[in-house]
User: Fold these one by one.
Assistant:
Number 1:
Amino acid sequence: MIIAENSMPLKKHIWALIILNVLDGMLTFFGLTFGLINEGNPLLQSFSPVTILVIKLLLSLCLFGLLFTPFVFVQSGKWRYFLISTITLYSIILLLHVIWISFLVFF
């Protein structure tokens, strides 16, 4: 039985968070490995770049697991707006990573 995409309103938002988290992990790893950035998260500052990347990938795997739970079927507008807000904030943080690394590498 194929489930219509409309019945899973949060699926696209969860996928967006997974992609943003993986990209953030890769950029953080790249930036820390080459000494271009410092980790700003006090909870992650004491970890190596590889450990931070693994943590980010495990968190993405947890988010991926949400795709197979009843959560994706939630029709609540509150959850949708929360996820959209989270995606927006994460996108801004990711954009800052790209800008910082670009300036440090090319200028």
Note: The mean pLDDT is 88.
Number 2:
Amino acid sequence: MPIPYKTLFLLEAATDLVFEIKRLDVQSTNPGEVYFWFRFDKATQQLQSLTFVAMDSRSDEQYRTFVQGALQFGPSAGTYTPQLLGTPIHLHLIVPAILPPAAETALFGYFLAA
């Protein structure tokens, strides 16, 4: 079942997508109930929820820390470094931030199962 959402950030590599969404159907003062980060593996079509820890920004650079890894990005590109493997994934920013159909289907499945 589709949920109303807005993609806030979408970063893409040949193998992965990393993105943040805002749920439009949830009215809450708790950001953890409204904003969500995900990593989508294009090969396996698997969606991984990223557990948010912290954020920072300096100049044009944004930094996000998750239990699963760290993300750094600017106006056109970024890097996601998984916690376990530690091999950086180089990403480019997609504007406008519109999820591909496979990622959107996985997103809807995630919230349906939750």
Note: Residues 22 and 31 are 9 Å apart (CA to CA).
